[in-house]
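User: I've been going back and forth on whether these two constructs are worth ordering. Before I decide, could you fold them both?

Assistant: Sure. I'll take them in the order you sent them. The first construct and its structure tokens:
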Amino acid sequence: MAESPVKARVAILISGRGSNMAALIEASRAPSCTYEVALVFANVPDAAGLETAAAAGIATAALDHRGHGGRAAFDAKVLDILRTHAIEYVALAGYMRLLSDPFTAAWEGRMLNIHPSLLPSFTGLDTHARAIAAGCRLAGCTVHFVTPDLDCGPIVAQAAVPVLDDDTPDTLSARILVEEHRLYPAALNALCGGRLRIDGQRVLGLDPR
């Protein structure tokens, strides 16, 4: 019998309930998936997603981001935790932290984030309310590589949904979240499978359909 291929070791970083984390974990159970979730880390010690991950049999770690003498000092401690768990790739899933340049550099080309807008539009927070206020007819989500500039890394994949006349930020968010849960595992699977290639600001190698 042929041995199962070795899966890449992924850490998911969260700050809250981790709905995208749960989608990544579920996708990792497929035999054909190229990654395993080896660690879930939170900068909020009582983040609800930690309990979800532990119930799934996944190692967890938490470290309150306060009281470490600055962002770079905290990130250095997180980096040590990731190295202890032999992590190869990082997926941000609602991780509400601006990352220091040294941390970003350590994971260059190996760290993804999912953002709830069609980048480059609406970087930062309150994306759904801003899309509605701007009169957008389409909104969506973007998976991108993480770089030092907030929400500006090369785009891996995007998914769009219509903005309806009666949408509120909550109803629009709920529809986009369905697409996030589909898109993020596919993008991470492609990255860990070695199928993505960065060409300037373009990322090649993932069929977004």
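The second construct, handled the same way:
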Amino acid sequence: MPRVTNAVQTRARRVRVLKTTRGYFGNKSRLYKFAKDAQMHAGVYAYRDRRVRRREFRKLWIARINAACRVRGLKYSVFMAALKKANIELDRKQISELAISNEAGFEALVKQLNLK
């Protein structure tokens, strides 16, 4: 009985890893041993940072809304509480876009809340 090796699958696995690490610096793009480790780290960072990106965007939207509120003499927390009390279901992204691109619309939203 001939000796069975796993050469085809092993080669395919190595080629696949080296393809994904193309462009990495030094041995990380050339040698399988280092490329495998670099690929694992890159995957961990990518997974983590997809969540971090959401956090950072939320912080940005809050800062924009707060700036727009301060110009009108309001506090962010008071504005958001009034929105919730009035059952206006706009998320922070939409409110932020309204404050940046359509100041008249944001002003109308503030007037609708009767905060002044």
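Notes on the second construct follow. The mean pLDDT is 94. The chain has five helices and no strands.
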